[in-house]
Amino acid sequence: MPTMADVARSAGVSVATVSHVLNETRPVLPHTRQAVLDAIEELGYTPNTLARSLVTSRTRSIGLAVSAISNPYFTEILQGVEAAVLEHGYSLLIADPHDDPEHERKVVQLLHERRVDGLIVVPSADPRALLAYLGRHAVPTVLLDRVVDGRADTASPFDQVCAENSEPTARLVTHLAGLGHRRIGLVAGLPGLSTTGERVAGYRRGLTAAGLPQDEDLIVPGNSESAAAEQATAALLALAAPPTALVTANNAMTIGALRALRTRGRSVPDDIALCCFDDFAWADLFSPRLTAIAQPSRELGAEAVRVLLERLASPGRPARTVRLPCAFVHRTSCGCREEDTTADPAGTRSTPRYP
Fold it and tell me: Residue 254: helix, strand or coil by DSSP?
């Protein structure tokens, strides 16, 4: 197995120069650097990662704590993180906090003890223990998908990357209202999550923009998962005046809502229109095809890595929150005709057909 000394002899430089190239501990002239890289390639030299970490105090590894990896949305986020991490020459360690606050703190501590250079974390609905640990140990961290607020007089002390939530949800509501719906239900996410609060706020914002009243009976918690959303949808359908349209606040809850509608013999969109937050691979295969808000999931993962690397390069800079826009994917579950879905639905209006 070739050694660093072999690389140095082949490149005609000192072992110290090879070390500086590998560890980026001192600037090296471009032609010298290239000679070292060529020698590494020719000899098939593999750097000793452990030894490098002792020299640089960096392991070139990033920890990712994300729950529900089986969820297509988080799977795509993971793919975005992984691709960006590898592109920048880092390795990735992954842990699943199971959306449990105590387990969340434990797995983040385990990742930290593995000496990762920084962390990307999708926080739970109660991240107090997590945030206390991260703050106490000054761990470079980016909070992903779900944001947290700082104290009343300060911004969050952590970098954050997430999608827009309020405006896209409002757009679903105003689109349904434009099609004549006056009773629009919302299957909301897990209480305590920022995504839940922002999407509920967007739902209310959409009702106000459409001139519709706020009816608390039309907002039911689906707890961000399929079984609870099925029960929540059943509760909406059992109302004396059930909704004629439904907004589901994530992809898992969309599946639960569809299951409840099918069980009760309700047809989409003939009996009830449906729009959902989160597009997913098979949304276009349903009949009818699902009108949805598509989040830039892979881009969110890649952006979180970029922000974390900037934090590692400039530890003292102020924390910031980056929000990426979502896209309205116009299909037919909202009640629009197939031929109308290629047009921008923002101006779609019709004579009210629903009580």
Answer: helix
